[in-house]
Amino acid sequence: MGVAPTVAKRTKIVIPDAIGFGQSDKPLLEEVVLVGHDMGQTTALELMTRHDEGKLSFKIRHAILMNGSTLWDMVKLIPLQTEMLARPDKASTEHLDFKKFGERIRGSYGTDVSDEVINAQTAQVFAKNGDLVISQIMRYALEREEFYDRWVGTFAHFRTAPLSLYWGAKDPVAKIAMAERIKTWNPAMDYYPIESASHWPMIETPAIIADAILTRLPLYK
Length: 221
Known about the structure:
There is one protein chain. With about 220 residues, this protein is an alpha/beta fold. The protein has a domain at about 80-135. The chain contains eleven helices and four strands. Helix 2 links the parallel strand 1 and strand 2. The longest helix is centred in the first third of the chain and has 14 residues, at about 40-50. The protein is globular and about 60 Å long.
């Protein structure tokens, strides 16, 4: 029996699988259609910035961004965000209340949403004790203030690939005014306000978002 199985009988072990080694995926990407929402919007903007700087190993053929609060100066935090950001920057020792957390997620919707959807989203947060670290994870939002000029500058100046913006018009946090402001900075960008969606267009209007992605794929074969 090897070292890891033997030690694992007595204690918990963590073995990192570094990118490119072992069982990690090796997608060997050359070209992508980049899609980002919320935290993913901010992550996508960093990738787009590096694309402009010539620092990516792959080419962004098209960027599709949805609702997100990278424009930190326009954010109106909902109670869930306020509560999480007020917590210490460390893992909690006490579990959050599942039902209460779910109701806080409901507050990010500006449209009617079923209990089934809320419970599914909440379960994803709570999986494998995720609720103990969610307040730490949500501190990524503070980086939007720290790197505001870098990421907002990409919204305004990104020209190395087409950019499309799909925005739920009823979003109570990342309000439609954000999208309208971004459009004034980048008039060449495709802009699609979605009147029947709020913060979660990929959940509220999945057909629209799926079509947005699929219709662009043939352009880059």
